[in-house]
Amino acid sequence: MLNYIWGGLIIISLVFAIVQDTADLMTDRYLNSKPWEVEIKFPEDADKERRQSVRLGLPDNSEAITATWRPVDDQTEVIISVTDKLPKHWQDVAQEQEARDKNTLRAILKDFDSQTGMATIVLPEVRFVKIRAIQTAAFDMAEFAVTLAIGLIGIMALWLGLMQIAKEAGLINLIVKAVQPFMRYLFPNVPKDHPALGMISLNLSANVLGLGNAATPLGIKAMEELQKINPNKDEASNAMCMFLTLNTSSVQLLPPATLVAIMGLGVNELIVSITLATAVATIVGVIAAKWYARKYPEPSLIENGEEN
Amino acid sequence: MQTFAVFILPLIIVLIPLYGLIKKVPVYEVFVDGAKEGFQIGVRIIPYLVAILFAIGMFRASGAMDWMITGLRPVLSLVGFPADLLPMAIFRPLTGSGSVGILADLIAVHGEDSLIVKMAATMFGSTETTFYVIAVYFGSVGIRRMRYAVQTGLIADLAGIIASVAVVYWLLG
Predict the structure, then answer these.
(1) Greatest C-alpha distance within chain B
(2) A229 interfacial to chain B (CB closer than 8 Å)
(3) How does pLDDT run across B103-142, given as a tens digit for each residue?
(4) What is the domain range of residue A236?
């Protein structure tokens, strides 16, 4: 399943990027090589052979735009600084242009009447926006994945250390005893009194209380305990699938911190609806996982384990 | 409840070593021993996270989403599901930061008190970033074949999404 979703995401991205870029080219969305009429206002007594700051006036735009006049050998560049005073289309071009620096727009001067200052300029061409975007996104996200994983290390070490103490002190065993009756229903294949049940219930409690940064390390610890009793180390066991389902539909009584950050106090009104919706998600998830578990007993019992 | 939540973490962090001391566990040694693993796990999940996140990043950047919304809008309006919620419904299982952005957009467009925003926020609160959870949890123990975990995770998400819309209609609509 994941193979298809993963492959699908990549292929769909490429197809849509190509379709979109072709459509943009056909409809000339970025008006490539269109000459724009502007009036260039020089300071008094300016030497037009030299680089200097100028102001641009557009026929339908009363705001003056600041730019740099930059004569090179055979042509003159007008480097426009990008602000939200620019016409909408110019801002779009600046945003989607190939040049790295999105804060300047390097237009080329075509015709120039040095008496009146009237001129036409051509903006940089914009092509293959989406293709470039998916490529940048792929590299950026790959980098971000590592940042994310490295960022987890510290907090993970803290919780794993605490859990080790809890385990050695016998705290986990106490928890296992307490939650056993309920957990045995969800995880029938986990042996009685196994520490995995304790870790799972700690992870679920962290979720319920909205303690996101504690939930992940505890969940990983639970996963490790489950892996110890997994007959086929390369494949998820039924208990793991159930555990994952519980986590993706995490029951929570307190709203997650991110939601509080965006919504502020408005979140209080939503606690009941969030709790109800998440309860529905959890119940449906558990029923689904139970159904699948009955359909595919345990990987070791299936002759060819390729169940996607 | 919120005040109570502030105390949970500090209490846990203090009480576990305290309990250990009472039980005569060499707490410092045991802590370090357990914490050692943190680094390996962090490194072990990197390939899984890279695989999931870069594919999702490409999908987001390609703009395929906009086309899907256009296509699905008439179908969804038939069953009474607001089409504006579709990006949230699709992106919530894929990316946490992406769905935060979508929620912020919806607030900017519709206002905080609109039904759409309440539904989107309920959706955000009631489901998890399924693919991230899959990558991290299965990655941490080196499992590549997930059997039906993706399906059940997505079924739970779908149930949560539908329930969010229904519950908000029912309670606040």
Answers:
(1) 66
(2) no
(3) 988 998 898 889 999 999 999 888 888 999 999 999 999 9
(4) 170-301
